[in-house]
Amino acid sequence: MAHPRRQPWIVASATSWAILLVASTCIGASAAPGVAPGDAPGRNGEAGPPASFQPASGPAPGLATLGTVRVGIAPDLATWNASQGVGGGDVYVANAGSENVSVLAGLTNVATVNVSAYGHAPYDPIDDPASSSVVLTYHDYTGPHNVSVLHGPVAGGTQAVAQVEGVTANDVPVLGVYDVANASIYLTDNGATVGVAVVGAANATRFATVLTGATSDPRGLAVDPGNGEVYVVDLGVDTVTVVSGVHLLANVTVGALVNSTSGVNESSGGVDDLDYASDIVYDPANGDLYVANAGAGTVSVLNRTTVIATVGVGKLPYALAYDPSDGEVYVTDVLSDAVSVLRGTTLEGTVPVGRYPVDATYDASDGDILVANVGSDNVSALNGTAVAGSVGIGPTPVGSFGVPCAPVSIVYDTVDHDAYVVCEGSGSVTILGTAPGGPPGIPAWGWGLVGIGLVLLVLLAITWNSRRRQRAKPSPQAPSLSASGPGAPDPSSRPPPP
After folding, report:
1. Does residue 101 contact residue 95 with C-beta atoms inside 8 Å?
2. What would you measure as the largest C-alpha separation in the chain, in angstroms?
3. Taking the model in full, what pTM does it have?
4. 181: Cβ–Cβ under 8 A, 6 or more apart, which residues?
5. Cβ of 436: how many Cβ atoms within 10 Å?
6. Peptide bond into 479 cis (omega under 30)
7. How many other C-beta atoms can be found within 10 angstroms of the C-beta atom of residue 451?
């Protein structure tokens, strides 16, 4: 039988351990979202993906909508500028319809930069870390065809703008990429020169133009940071142009880059030039480059100037993203409503996501790939060939400002570990981040149970230690009655024990 004074502490100990057991069980369950069994039918009657690739039905563990901020009209592309802002960096959003650029610091719109005097339909902002500035291109083919540089600190709700010299009326700069080896911005020029314009953002001067071909239509770009070579996807002739500095090294033939029969309604889908996929991504693990061939439904794998493999993927491969944590390349297959996952030259699997996935980016906080689904107004979170879940961008099918969001691009803030989702339809940006209450996969109430259990265990340990010390103290001795003196009994006269 237990000692009656120890029973409350036994009950408290059992209660504490029970709380911790329940908390750990719930945390484990929340960290591993369920996978629906069975095969889902694909679009247009084709067979669906295998059961092991079914998406999770709930939101992505740990991924939450932190808020939505209004920007300009018809925003499209954005970039994160690490050198601007306080304690992190600012995100620059090009608003084609309102001819301005929104500068965001979290949910605060710290500046709206009017660029209408420099060009129409601002399109692609490119971060230049060397000069702490942002280079901006325009997407209006009627002119003026300029390139601007947003530089200096944000003050009074705006920022200084300068025009890049040497860009003529015949030039049509569209997309760009920063080359760290040359400390320059490379821009695809779809005008009379038809080439790659090398721009130094620090002094806003156009350095040189590299001709790529008389019938070419250069679009997407990627850089090999090891050797500084720039790879340009050329839609007009289905090639990739390799440039080193201002020198043309090679034109490498790939698959059909244009899909002119996609059938996607661009006005309702919220995407411009959806038929003209032009994405290319560099894999630093093996030094290869991956090119989305929208017309062929394949991905070409290049090693410098040689095509080493052609991998079949889904319908209309559009955007590419590289996962540095495991070396996988993710390909959004717009008309298959899926994402193909490649490792090297091997197709590892096909993952169903939302409708019309048009952009993808790597989330360094948990190693997931975030996919923007323009047709279903949500973002899917992928981990390998599994879907961790999805997050709605505004109440489907109506966004935060009364119209569908139509997420067209995602940019990631590597300091605050937030993802900025650009909504072309609603003229807004929704910020996704880690859900409050703990790391991804652990809900707030789970951590609350853990805390209560730990507090009870600490109190139990303190109380038990205090009682143990009390029991260890010697008991006070009674006064001795065997003192010697007259009349004291003789101890030797006591009878022996029986």
Report:
1. yes
2. 134
3. 0.74
4. 223, 225, 227, 228
5. 10
6. no
7. 12
Tell which residue, 203, 145, 132, has the closest CA to residue 174.
145
In Å, what is the CA distance from 441 to each residue of 63, 139, 142?
Answer: 9, 41, 50
Taken in order 356, 362, 364, 368, is the CA torsion positive or negative?
A: positive
Tokens representing 231 are 């790879």
200 to 145, 164, 226, 380: CA distances (angstroms): 17, 9, 20, 37
Other beta carbons within 10 angstroms of residue 248's beta carbon come to 16
Query: Is 432 within 8 Å of 419 (Cβ atoms)?
Result: yes
Q: Which residue type is seen at 80?
A: W
DSSP 354-376: SSSEEEEEEETTTTEEEEEETTT
Residues 366-391 as b/e (b if ≥16 CB within 10 A, e otherwise) read: bebbbbbbbbbbbbbbbbbbbbbbbb
pLDDT tens digit sequence for 421-474: 999 988 999 999 876 544 444 445 455 666 676 777 777 777 767 776 676 666
Residue 322: in which H helix or E strand, if any? strand 317-323
Q: Do residues 158 and 114 make contact, with C-beta atoms less than 8 angstroms apart?
A: yes
| Element containing residue 471 per DSSP (H, E) | helix 444-472
How far is the C-alpha of 468 from the C-alpha of 329, rounded, in Å? 61
The DSSP annotation for 429-463 comes to EEEEEEPTTSSTT--HHHHHHHHHHHHHHHHHHHH
In whole angstroms, give the CA distance from residue 350 to residue 297.
Answer: 13
> Tens digit of pLDDT for each residue in 235-266?
888 999 999 988 899 999 998 888 765 555 44
